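Lecture 7 notes: from sequence to structure.

We start with a single chain of 255 residues. Read the sequence below before looking at the structure.
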Amino acid sequence: MTQRVRLGVNIDHVATVRNARGGASPDPVRAAREALAAGADGITAHLREDRRHISDADIDHLSAVLREQERPLNLEMAVTQEMLAIALHHRPHAVCLVPEKREERTTEGGLDVVGGHNWITPFVGRLNDAGARVSLFIGADPAQIEAAKRTGAAVVELHTGAYCDAVRDERPEDAAAELAALTAGAAHAHALGLEVHAGHGIDYETVAAVAAIPQIMELNIGHFLIGEAIFVGLGPAIGRMRDLMDQARGLEAAA
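Now the structure, written as tokens:
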């Protein structure tokens, strides 16, 4: 039987809109509730060191609400002692370790697990001991995938940004090469016993090809869905993405 791909909805940019003016609206927790009602399987939130969108209070509230609803929170965070302490306090279902630069607009590229293996591995161990499912956000490079396996992480999330950019920029040869790399990377990670997720830059045009990769079990999508929600509403935006993911797996009847 073909397996349905899970959809994690990243609600960071609801907080970005809120923070642009201050106050309490729009509320990321309300967005999380509506996303789950619309078909999301879980909620992703990135607590950055500079707190440019999601805040500590948001994590407090999201953790309580999702625990109450028995739905998973995927906490994206940098590999720092501050973030480790926050994760150990909240004990989310999943933690995705990502690279982070203060000057970047969004996460650029994947985590260098090869170069950072000696300091990433203890973080993974502490999080594993706390019961979190640890994911490493990496490029689809065999060396990075193999290094991720050696850290003890259960999951890798493959960075899809280069593929999505090539599609949007109408560079078909580059898009084909990037998709081939994602496909090979997913197969390699799966063969090593890692669960495979993917995310970054995915929209309606690019989701089908990524969701069709058989080893990918979860997509995490945020910015596009929050932007689309301005025009059609969050529920319809998520519903269409969910339908496209299901269709990519030949699950039209289940949509």
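The radius of gyration is 17 Å. Keep this in mind for problem set 3.
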